[in-house]
Amino acid sequence: MDFREHQDKAKKNTLIIWFLYLVLLLISSILIGYTLFVGLNLAQFYQPEYQQYNFGEKFIAANQIVFQNQEQLFDFLGFSLVALLAMLSATAFGFFQKSNGHKIALAFGGKLISDEEELSIEEKQALNIVTEQALAANIPAPALYIIPDNAINAFAAGKTTQEAIVAITQGSIASFNRTQLSGVIAHEIGHIVNHDIKLNIQISAFVFGFTAVFFLARMIFYQAAYNRRMDGRAKLVLFTIAAIIALIGVMTVWFGRILQAAMSRQREYLADASAVQFTRYPNGLVEAFEVMQNGGKTKLENPNAKEYAHAMLFGMGGELFATHPPLDKRIKRIQNRI
């Protein structure tokens, strides 16, 4: 397997996807700003002094105002900036909310495994493998959690290498032998070394940030619904603004999740390459993948599983929103057949 080539390709694709995220953020902000500016101007045209004009004339005039002079253009850009700041603020909130790996593991019902407690043979083996692979990767050994779920899966989480955790399901421990489990854990260590754990938080936060659009739409809806002094036609305009902004939110989140899945697929290839590099034994991870091909269940029962699907070792989504490449393709890459 050509580690460097695969790693460089995954990193390059990651940069492209980040660029597309920023483009999506800017486009959605501009669309929201334009909708607000035009819509509010259109609502103003339902004052008595404009009653001689029909809807078409008012709509055209409301659009023309945007480019009437520099002041109007700055007002439009101001609305766009407000929308951008709202989404960035929600993104920052989402980042800090999801940055604690221990809380994420506990949300899955995970049990912290420590040498200070009496452990089963399987738990002791898993803890030893984490220590071994962390040593091979030259990082501090992350905390290990075992999730009481019969599905076969694992994930790494946390904001920094020092705060990282690795979580493995009980189903993984029961299904894999030591060599296979070493490949799986090395894969998760790879996510930590490649800073994917922080990247996962950033991606989730970005998609969460797009949901701020819905709060803006709801605020406009309530403003129209409970303003008794507003003309009924002006209210209808505001309801339409709220609906359009909500639609922009739906499309933005939808495209955001597609980019999230694409980003996740690239980082999975990178973690696979890192796992082979740490274990020096490609067949360990390949054999683990073959266990999954032979009917292994990957979907966790926990309600948090869907939100963190991109961080799991094995995917749980459809093709468009697939957070992981097909196992056949991952095996071929490890075996340097593609």
SSE order and pairing:
Elements: H1 3-44, H2 55-65, H3 70-97, H4 101-107, E1 111-113, H5 121-137, E2 143-147, E3 154-157, E4 165-169, H6 170-175, H7 178-193, H8 196-210, H9 212-225, H10 232-279, H11 282-293, H12 327-334
Parallel strand pairs: 2-4
Antiparallel strand pairs: 1-2, 3-4
GO biological process, one term: proteolysis
Family: Belongs to the peptidase M48 family.
Membrane topology: Multi-pass membrane protein
Give your account of this protein's structure.
66% of the residues lie in helices and 5% in strands. With 338 residues, the protein is mainly alpha-helical. The protein folds into two domains: 3-99 and 204-262, no CATH class; 101-200 and 268-334, Metalloproteases ("zincins"), catalytic domain (Zincin-like), CATH 3.30.2010. Strands 1-2-4-3 form a four-stranded mixed beta sheet, sandwiched between helices. β3 (154-157) and β4 (165-169) form a beta hairpin. The longest helix is centred in the C-terminal third of the chain and has 48 residues, at 232-279. The radius of gyration is 25 Å and the shape is elongated.
